[in-house]
């Protein structure tokens, strides 16, 4: 994108090439530290605040925590890469039905705009306080045997999936990435994929650029590939240069997959039919370890593994089942039962979709303030309880 075009869209100068600004002193464009946020951007922030306040049907965490005081203290701030409060809130302002409504354009945003991020993080992640620290990584390698099949008869669970996100160290998140960054990152991870020789994980990388619509649609329909044109990500300025640098790696059976440069730099996924959570976790652990041996990832002292959306910080783990619970899901208290079990309910085609044929996506909600294994166990114990309730309802 030309500098002029960037300025027109963002009302501010373009960020420098992130890796150049971090690792070298080449003559890339640098935003002066004391440069004020453009008046036009501040006006848009104020408009956004007013729009949220006026929207009685908006229940996002953004609306709740973007108070007048927070706006006034943050609207003049910028990160070193040039990200401002508008970059953080614009998706939630455009999409009043957002659950969270904010994204971090770069890692520094979590600190620069902490007056907004901290209360959102605390509320989303079961009360994770600003002085709390994410525990050390424990993927649960020695404990996969403690997660036997949740549904050995195959009566309730269609499939199980566990994913985690990773950000390549030295690169910011989507809104601050250049086209050159996307291509460089894709090249780096392709090289890693080419070196995966472990039998179960070995596979191929399929770039989105050049993939036929037919294959892409089928992969999305079968729950393997990310959707295109996500309005929440688009409004967050996260889809620039699409489909450049985006793609999917998967093994032959499509049980081990890696999404490249969708919402996060990497989404590492293990999935299979049925309810064998231990097997799915075991494969994910193998995959994560294989990839991280070859690429350094961004980890924050307090917030754990860094991601674009604050809902994914910490472990970044979402462990889910696609499950049919016709009796209890018809009850009005189904959602509050799931809330009590710290579970999140989604539709069958992922976030912001509806259930189809009585199948729900049920997963752990919190990802921060607990270990990876504990996040998976939260889903495991909760779903086990829901199946017990369903069985009781069947015999009542
Ligand atoms: N247990 C599961 N079995 C099969 N497919 C699943 C399962 N869980 C999620 N999926 C599929 O994965 C795809 C992505 O889902 P979705 O976007 O909700 O979650 P995500 O990848 O965890 O990311 P995010 O939370 O950022 O949206 C969708 O097609 C969804 O149906």
Tell me about this structure:
By secondary structure, this protein is α+β, with helices and mostly antiparallel strands. It is 37% helix and 14% strand. It folds into 2 domains: 3-124, Transferase Creatine Kinase, Chain A, domain 1; 141-395, Glutamine synthetase/guanido kinase, catalytic domain (Creatine Kinase, Chain A, domain 2), CATH 3.30.590. The strands form 2 sheets. An 8-stranded antiparallel β-sheet has the order 2-3-4-5-1-8-10-9. Strands 6-7 form a two-stranded antiparallel ribbon. Residues 1-33 have low confidence and may be disordered. The protein binds adenosine-5'-triphosphate (ATP). Adenosine-5'-triphosphate binds next to strand 1 and strand 8.
Structural features:
396 residues, alpha+beta, Transferase Creatine Kinase, Chain A, domain 1, Creatine Kinase, Chain A, domain 2, eight-stranded antiparallel beta sheet, two-stranded antiparallel ribbon, 15 helices, 14% strand, globular, disordered N terminus, binds adenosine-5'-triphosphate, creatine kinase activity, kinase, nucleotide-binding, ATP-binding
